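Quick start: read one record
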Amino acid sequence: HITDKKTQSQYAAGLLGPYESALVKSPTEIEVRFTRPYAPFLQAASTTYLGIASPASLKKGAEALCAGTTAVGTGPFKAGAYTRGQQRAYTRNADYAWAPEGAGHTGPARLDSFALRFITEDATRVGALTSGQVDAAGAVPPQQAGAVKRDPKLTLTSRSVPGAVDAFYLNTKGALFSDVRVRRAFQLSVDLDALVGSVFQGTGTRAWSLLSPTTPDSYDKSLEKSWPHDPAKAAALLDEAGWKGRDADGYRTKDGKVLTVSAPVYGQASLFSQAVQGELKKAGIKLDLAASTDAAEVSGRLDSGRYDVVELSWARADGDILSHFLLSTETSAGGGHNFARVADPKVDRLLKDAQAETDRAKRAALYAQVQRWALDQAVVVPAYVEQTTVAANRKVHGLRQSVAAWPEFYGAWVEAR
């Protein structure tokens, strides 16, 4: 179903990598074949993206599946009532008896039921928690984290999200960032320590690598402190690249053109993106945050390469997330995320060697080479490590975060009121 072209799967299909075929060998065994060794499949198979789904529900088609009322899986909860944009309810699967090791207990979930409410406004979401309307709330904003911590009725937990950190991917095939000097100037112009501290009010962590420190068997700790803010060096690089002039607003110019970095943004530019925009202005670089709510327009720009930089992050508890962003075959037009438009045979070889390697230490060493290359060539500028925060009433117990930092409800229970 995932690899069927009619499904138009992108990320899940990408997780299958060099998938070739599957053979059902018994009611409880399946043999999956690949065109080459592919160790990341083991971790990928543990995610919801490759979760086991009922063939009957899949046959109902994309429209029914996207409506959110017909999907059938194998988890500890069954899908209940669903109101689009408002709430999703779940009820306990009384037959559940296959919890993984380390889940905390066995058998059916402790909760009879629970409901997820979709509250997008930060103040309203936190207010619903402090007033007792909900038992827990996710995505607590930095501005309110302190108040939550001080409330004796509440707890606040935070976990760094593994995978690709929030970062700026520079279009190496574009006219502007095809020059490595300009890429390095962009990399050194932003005081990330100051910005992350200011925007996230002490609750954020500046990133030094494309990968989060919590990404298993892959993060290269030696990169920490290896490329600090250096405006003088950035200025020298821009001078060397020919961007010596200045316009009335202080932006650098070359041959009558302003040094403008085009950044497509779906929806609204974040507070952090705007802070980076202000920081780059000090260096004479104009960051154009081209915000749009037209998904087709944004994706069209990405697919055709009509941009200079893309800011994004992606959670995954495996270093192979690097392949989704740097493997030459992972183009945007093909459903991939190689927004830096990297096409380097050395990088491809390192990533494929890592995919074939089952020794964790050896895989980590290969991923370290890729991380160092990406920073040396300034094809990516890591910004900050995303955090998943969950605040809860102290009467809530057993609500924990998975290795991917998602909330897990299987072991949760609530004291009687």
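The first helix runs from residue 11 to 15.
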